[in-house]
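FIELD: query
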Amino acid sequence: MIRFFGQPKYSTANDTLGYEFFIRQYHQGNWVFPQNFNQFSAQQIRDLAIASIKALPKNVALVSINLDQIQFIRPDFIAGMAQVQKACYPVEVVIELTERPQKVPLSDLIDAARQYQANQLWVCLDDVGTGDNTIRLANALDPYVTEYKFALQNFRQYTDFSSIISPLLQFWRQYAQIHHKFFAIEGFETKAELSIGSHYHADVMQGYYLGRPQLISIGCTQTQKKTDKVNKFH
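FIELD: result
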């Protein structure tokens, strides 16, 4: 069994904007990170997304769903996500293209992004500046991308965390501004870090300090509801 966990997204004014969905699999009494995302069909993800979005509060403005490169370009996922958008309007469905390299041709990513946009879906380039989500890909997908997301957690292993992220944040904030894209920052873990969001004019913020992922309940048993939190999502 699979379910979505939703992590809240906020504006710098602390207004709730929506959720990012993380798929998790129920195994031996716990919700776990799937070992292979390709085991789930586009129809499974589509049906689960529709049910999960409809279970959210009525004031939710947007929901983002992560797709790896291989999923992103598949016609059945493109069609399935288009159906999610139609079924859940006026909620804005955002497709987050993950940074994980999967050797997908650039031309295929461009064509898929164009199709998502044509189906009124936002495309977000996730974790910019890491993996395959470099400036090269950002330039190539520019006509079809709505949002860039910067992940603070990707740089926490460095002792000089602040000095490393400052120029990167400045670059991507400026790039988003020049190209008229929304700019999101995720990974806030302390109150002090919230100043980063306002300093770099983030349109969207999320992180453990603001809210941890919680199970989107669409009919789980009482036993499963007791394990509705997952401690590690990064």
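FIELD: remark
The mean pLDDT is 92.
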